[in-house]
Automatic annotation (TrEMBL):
GO CC annotation terms, alphabetical: extracellular space; fungal-type vacuole
InterPro entries referenced in this protein's UniProt entry, alphabetically: Metallo-depent_PP-like
Protein name: Endopolyphosphatase
Residues annotated as transmembrane: none
GO MF: endopolyphosphatase activity; exopolyphosphatase activity; phosphoric diester hydrolase activity
SUPFAM superfamilies, alphabetized: Metallo-dependent phosphatases
Keywords carried by this UniProt record: Glycoprotein, Hydrolase, Signal
Keyword Glycoprotein among UniProt keywords: yes
Signal peptide: 1-24
GO biological process: polyphosphate catabolic process
Length: 435
């Protein structure tokens, strides 16, 4: 009887084990944060470069990074920031931005935050500590969660050059990755072993239709001294490129309608079109994106504080980035649009962007950018009035006379900038957020 009972237990245990294996969820399963197409609004938020500074002092001397008063009270350092200075974002500005989002921007499906949360470490008398950086990440996450239910409106953040524990320098298995994994745990992101190793991950946002590939642009960034260029096989950048290629190939093989967004902090090029990435990383990265232009519906970055539109195109068999400007026409229907959004930090007037995107896939592939609206604060007016008012600076459809911004649409927009003096003048004005 004892043997029979034991045998029965063993049989049951084996069955239970087999069942658990069959029904187990793999550790790298990429669960969609937005599960179904029904109930979507067809809009998402892009916000970048918050640079929250709890030490900002209204009326302080901007030469002290707005941390200390000078001999006279400064009119430049207003309640909501010091426009065009090296000062970071005061708490009232950040709070006002999230109050606006909570009150006026609720009809969105998800949020892309392209990084740079902490203040700059520029003040020798007030050095930025690791605790300051981590507290900044926690505080900004609380702001997002106060404005949105992130269970229903997913929030996808990335790592900026001021988000690590060493400014600009991020290596393999960097300590910031595990710190952020803990802070971001409530977001239920797809943070797999790749994130622990390199700070990058892929996240489905609409089941079987749209995914976000979140790159760690720090591995490509010229100023990162902790990693070498991507032509060295052992470099962190080379490892990320290999992962990115595999990830793009996997999405391309899913089905012909599955589209992806790429997001990161630092764009491949600066405001003037000069390279911000290491030479080999730059070349390999844009070639990889160009080869997958059929599934990439958009590329979203911040860092420069400017509002810029660029495109990856193929020219004489090679991929290159064309910078929007007077003489830069684009002859390509397969361009990859590079959308760089302006920042909260008041280098220029603070700004927030909301995109309209295709959700049905009837006329254009799901994820196709249909329009965007740029909201901004006239900071001088806000400081004078003692209150913030977000206004619409422009909408892309009105500026460019287009109703979609896929590869062909982006090319048309850039050609309009190149050929039409009035549009080009407005584009230059909006690049600096009407400052």
């Amino acid at each position: 009887m004892i043997w029979t009972h034991s045998a029965a237990c063993i049989s049951v245990c084996i069955l239970l084990l087999q069942s658990s294996i069959v029904n187990a969820v793999p550790l790298n399963t990429n669960r969609a944060l937005v599960k179904r197409s029904s109930g979507l609004h067809g809009k998402f938020l892009h916000i970048t470069d918050i640079h929250l500074d709890p030490h900002y002092v209204e009326g302080a001397d901007p030469s002290s990074l707005c941390h200390r008063h000078g001999k006279k009270r400064s009119k430049e350092a207003g309640k909501y920031g010091a426009l065009g200075s090296d000062c970071d974002s005061p708490v009232p500005l950040v709070k006002a931005a999230f109050d606006f989002l909570k009150d006026k921007v609720q009809d969105i499906d998800f949020i892309l935050y392209t990084g740079d949360t902490a203040r700059h470490d520029r003040d020798d008398d007030l050095p930025l500590s690791n605790d300051d950086i981590l507290n900044g990440h926690q505080t900004v996450l609380k702001y997002f969660k106060s404005a949105y239910n992130t269970k229903h409106t997913p929030y996808v953040p990335t790592i900026g050059n001021n988000d690590g524990l060493d400014h600009n320098d991020v290596g393999k298995h960097d300590k910031i990755f595990t710190k952020l994994e803990t802070i971001w745990k409530p977001l239920e992101l797809n943070l797999t072993k790749e994130f622990t190793f390199g700070g990058y991950f892929a996240q489905d946002v609409i089941q079987d239709k749209l995914s976000v590939i979140n790159i760690n642009s720090m591995y490509f960034f010229k100023k990162n001294d902790d990693t070498s260029d991507c032509d060295e096989a052992s470099s962190a950048g080379a490892a990320q490129l290999k992962w990115l290629e595999n990830t793009l190939d996997q999405y391309a093989s899913k089905n012909e309608k599955h589209q992806v967004y790429l997001m990161g902090h630092v764009p491949p090029v600066d405001d003037d079109g000069s390279m911000l990435y290491k030479k080999a990383c730059y070349s390999k990265y844009i070639s990889l994106l160009g080869k997958h232009s059929d599934i990439i519906a958009g590329h979203f970055t911040g860092h420069t504080n400017n509002d810029n539109l660029n495109a990856i195109v193929k020219d004489d068999g090679e991929y290159k980035i064309v910078h929007a400007g007077k003489h830069n026409k684009v002859d390509s229907k397969n361009a990859v649009g590079l959308f760089n959004a302006p920042s909260i930090i008041p280098v220029h007037n603070p700004a927030i962007r909301v995109y309209d995107y295709e959700i049905d896939g009837d006329k254009y592939p799901v994820g196709t950018i249909l329009d965007w609206k740029q909201y901004y604060i006239d900071l001088d007016k806000a400081n004078n009035d003692g209150k913030v008012k977000f206004e619409t600076e422009y909408t892309a459809s009105d500026l460019f006379g287009l109703d979609h911004f896929d590869g062909e649409g982006v090319a048309k927009a850039m050609n309009t900038i190149a050929e039409d003096k009035k549009t080009r003048k407005l584009y230059k004005k909006y690049a600096k957020v009407s400052s």
